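Retro notes (design track)

What went well: tokenization of the new backbones is finally stable.
What didn't: we kept losing track of which sequence belonged to which structure.
Fix going forward: every design gets posted as structure first, then sequence, in one message. First example under the new rule, 501 residues:
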């Protein structure tokens, strides 16, 4: 431990380190990893955390909200020689925000701006374990959390036995799925079956095997024995997600169902946010921060769902294993993802519009915040890489693929549904309708080759032409809507003209 570590957090960081003992025990080692306080000046006047002989959790007193677990290893053998975890003081604020937003709906311990020490301590232990996992050689495994069915995460028995994900090395944060009334569920992962397996693979002594070829054979068999068991699956970390079963910040095997439950909990958080952030004599800074965090969390859920559209699963295999490595997400699931986005994002999410919170946190900005969230969702969907994957899927699988044309039709049918239903169009929806046109405009005006050489521009042009026809025959009597419709027709004319020049 770094001497700079506050006394009250030391036991929790130590627990996080020693949590790995169970994994080493399973691989045949006792007391393989032990956390120690730094020696006093009297005990060892020369001791320094900078000394390369000591692996230290460095406590860095900056406001960075993070931690990291690098290591120095011998590239010839993989032996880990030394490690210094960097622990930034303000990782506690990150933990506060996650735990509050993700669990307060079911968890009284998370319903205040400052948690009790034992509550924060438990969260610190969680991060400590994760960082120590890195120092032991484990990378992130973003494919881990999708091993558990969403409903299992609502079960106290399941979660208390298995944690909320098979690995602490996923970005599986806190249980946002369990609902009020589900009982005493576990709220975070611990050292899980995947972690124990990784340590076994990396560390178990194989002294009895003298022949190196034989050792490789044994290791390969170990892997193959576990290949069909999702508990042991590895999904790599990527900047832009292609495989919806390997995502960060998600839980469970079905993003639509998980996110729907997550949103239910978020709306409970919003309803109680003022009461839970109340502090005698303090201003609304915390309310503002946590209200913003609700949007951040919602955007995470949206991202998890979007990844299913044009998604491709990736399951690593060696040549002696059967089956595909890459598989498109099936059509029905992709179409369910679009339905989710229509219901939860493009239908105005009025539960976010809490007038009391808004009146205390900002002069104005809600309409724009909402529009930005919808615009961002559209931009994620109408993204050239995603569209390219949809087109590829159509080429390979024809009618069994969810196509770009279907996606544009589904979206525009929902976004302009007022025209078919002949119902009034609210300000939020007018903003959204203009935003969709901008999405099509971005496709048509892009000079990227990806757009030039594929169906993407044709699909966008067709969509705008269909919309223009819809607008031309509409008969709204009121001036505001009439002007909105004229404006959209004029915008479409301009967008289509752009390429005709
Ligand atoms: Zn990490």
């Amino acid at each position: 431990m770094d001497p700079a570590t506050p006394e009250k957090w030391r036991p929790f960081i130590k627990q996080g380190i020693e949590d790995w003992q169970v994994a080493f025990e399973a691989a045949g080692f006792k007391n393989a990893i032990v956390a120690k306080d730094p020696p006093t000046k009297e005990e060892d006047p020369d001791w320094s955390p900078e000394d390369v002989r000591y692996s230290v959790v460095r406590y860095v007193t900056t406001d960075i909200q993070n931690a990291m677990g690098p290591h120095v290893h011998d590239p010839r053998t993989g032996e880990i020689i030394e490690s210094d975890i960097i622990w930034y003081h303000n990782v506690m604020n990150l933990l506060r925000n996650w735990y509050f937003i993700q669990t307060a709906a079911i968890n009284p311990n998370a319903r205040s701006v400052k948690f009790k020490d034992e509550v924060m301590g438990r969260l610190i232990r969680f991060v400590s374990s994760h960082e120590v996992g890195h120092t032991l050689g484990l990378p992130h495994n973003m494919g881990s959390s999708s091993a558990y069915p969403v409903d299992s995460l609502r079960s106290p028995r399941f979660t208390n036995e298995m944690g909320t994900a098979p690995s602490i090395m996923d970005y599986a944060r806190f249980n946002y799925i369990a609902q009020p009334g589900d009982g005493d569920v576990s709220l975070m992962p611990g050292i899980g079956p995947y972690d124990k397996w990784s340590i076994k693979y990396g560390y178990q002594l194989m002294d009895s095997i003298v022949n190196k070829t034989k050792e490789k054979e044994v290791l390969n068999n170990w892997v193959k024995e576990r290949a069909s068991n999702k508990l042991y699956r590895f999904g790599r970390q990527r900047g832009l997600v292609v495989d919806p079963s390997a995502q960060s910040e998600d839980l469970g095997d079905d993003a639509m169902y998980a996110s729907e439950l997550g949103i239910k909990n978020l709306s409970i958080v919003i309803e109680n946010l003022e009461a839970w952030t109340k502090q005698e004599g303090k201003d609304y800074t915390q309310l503002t921060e946590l209200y913003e965090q609700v949007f951040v969390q919602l955007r995470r859920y949206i991202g998890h769902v979007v990844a299913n559209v044009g998604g491709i699963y990736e399951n690593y295999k060696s040549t002696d294993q059967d089956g595909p490595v890459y598989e498109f997400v099936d059509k029905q699931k992709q179409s369910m993802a679009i339905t989710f986005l229509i219901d939860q994002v493009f239908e105005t999410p009025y539960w976010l519009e809490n007038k009391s919170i808004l009146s205390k946190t900002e002069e104005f900005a809600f309409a724009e915040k909402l529009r930005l969230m919808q615009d961002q969702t559209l931009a994620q969907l109408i993204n050239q890489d995603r569209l390219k994957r949809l087109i590829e899927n159509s080429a390979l699988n024809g009618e069994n693929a969810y196509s770009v044309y279907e996606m544009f039709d589904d979206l525009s049918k929902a976004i302009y549904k007022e025209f078919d239903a002949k119902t009034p169009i609210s300000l939020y929806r007018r903003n959204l309708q203009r935003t969709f046109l901008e999405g099509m405009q971005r496709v048509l005006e892009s000079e990227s080759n990806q757009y030039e050489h594929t169906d993407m521009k044709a699909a966008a042009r067709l969509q705008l032409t269909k919309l223009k026809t819809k607008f031309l025959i509409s008969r709204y009597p009121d001036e505001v809507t009439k002007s909105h419709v004229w404006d959209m027709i004029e915008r479409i004319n301009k967008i289509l003209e752009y390429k005709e020049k």
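Added context from the reviewer: The chain is about 50% helix and 5% strand.
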